[in-house]
Structures are given as structure tokens and as C-alpha cells.
Amino acid sequence: MKRHEKHTTVDRYSGGARINHWITAGSLILLALSGFALFHPSLYFLTALFGGGQWTRIIHPFIGVVLLIGFTGLFLRFVWYNFPNIDDVRWLWRIRDVINGDEERLPEVGRYNAGQKFVFWAMTFLIIILVLSGIGLWDVYFSSYITIDQKRLAAVVHAVAAVAIVLVWILHAYSAIWVRGTVRAMTRGSVTGAWAWRHHRKWLRQEVKTGRRVHGEERPPSAGEQRAPAE
User: How far apart are CA 203 and CA 108, in angstroms?
Assistant: First the structure.
């Protein structure tokens, strides 16, 4: 392909979506730090980040409220793109090619692939579990409605869900770094045409049809061209 095709960019996330994402990500990190500080005495030193143990205990659930509001915004923005379809089954069937980076052997992917959809739905369900179990531990407002046995169960469920969501977050962050050019989408709002062609070809074709979010002198290669442009 011609050299100047590298300068083609595709809008992927609006400014509002990016702000929404980083508020959610920031609150999740703060919740992890404050939660682990309360989880075990060996991690109590983390309470210094929040002004001490008492303040950590007070602030932690309110950060959870921010997370719930932030993720609700992301959910409403992107849920329609994350419903599973037959392409996801085909993508998972060739997961070895995904790991090996041989994406020419994969089915064309829409806005999100099966791995990204897994992260979306895992985050959704885990945040719901964290919120519900967290209510059972928020004594200031809910102690009179929760029995001791329910509180003990809530503590176990909350801890397990917290560990699970941290693991999902690590997977999400690692994947964004591993797939070069992905972080740009959430920092600058756009991706290169080469990135879109290689990783989300079906989505790129849809964007090209509208022509509103693709910028540059050249269009992506036709279906008959097998080699993706260099990134």
C-alpha cells in the first residue's frame, strides 16, 4: 500500500466516552487499593494513601458509588456492541491464532471481539455482585437491615468478587498494551486505519460506508487484499 495510507485514522471513542472510561478505571484502582488495605493486616500500610484506617473505611464505599455510576455510563454506551454472535464463536474456536497473532486466519471482527466482550460482561456481573455485597457491609446505612449471617456471607462474596475483578482488570490492561495501538483509542479517541483493518475489519468496513469517522486521503484495502498495512 502507499505510504500515506498510514496516516488514515478512524474515530473510535468520543471525548465523553474516554472521560467516562478513565473515571471508571480510576475508581476501580482506588477501590482495589483501599479494599486490599482493609482485607488483611499485612496490607494495612495502604491506608496511608487515604488518610489512615478510619478514613479508608469511610471513603471506600463512596468510591464504590462512583464506580457504579461510571460503569453504568459505559454500560449504556456500549452494551449494544457487546452481545455475542456467531463470529465470536468462530473467533474463540481459533483462539490459538489469536495468541500467535495470526489474525489473517480469524473471522472479520466487528467493534469488539469475543475477548473484549468477555471483559465487558465479566465487569458488569462482578460490579453488580460487589455493589450488592458491599451494601451488606456498609454498616452506617444498612446495618439494621442485615443479619450477622448475611453480613458474613456478604464479606466472603465481596472478597472473592474483588479478587476476580482485579484479575479481569489485569487481563484488560495487559491486552490493551499487548495489542499495539489500542491504548491510543482511549487516550486520543482514534485509531490508525492499519490498526482497524488488522483487528476490527468488519467494524472498519461499516465506518467506511458511513464515511463520517474515517479521516485521510486513502480508504482501507479491498476484500481481495490479504496483507494488512504496516502499523
Answer: 8
Question: If you average pLDDT over residues 37-57, what whole number do you get?
Answer: 93
Whether 175 is covered by a domain: the verdict is: yes
Q: Is residue 186 in a domain? A: no
Average pLDDT over residues 99-112: 80
- Does residue 6 belong to any structural domain of this protein? no
172 catalytic per annotation? yes
Q: Closest Cα to residue 27, out of 61, 78, 76, 54? A: 61
For residue 163, give its domain range.
15-180
List, in order, residues 6 or more apart from 157 with CB less than 8 Å away.
129, 133
Which of 21, 60, 158, 172 is catalytic? The answer is 172
Other CB atoms within a 10 A radius of the CB of residue 180 amount to 12
Q: Is the pTM of this model over 0.70?
A: yes
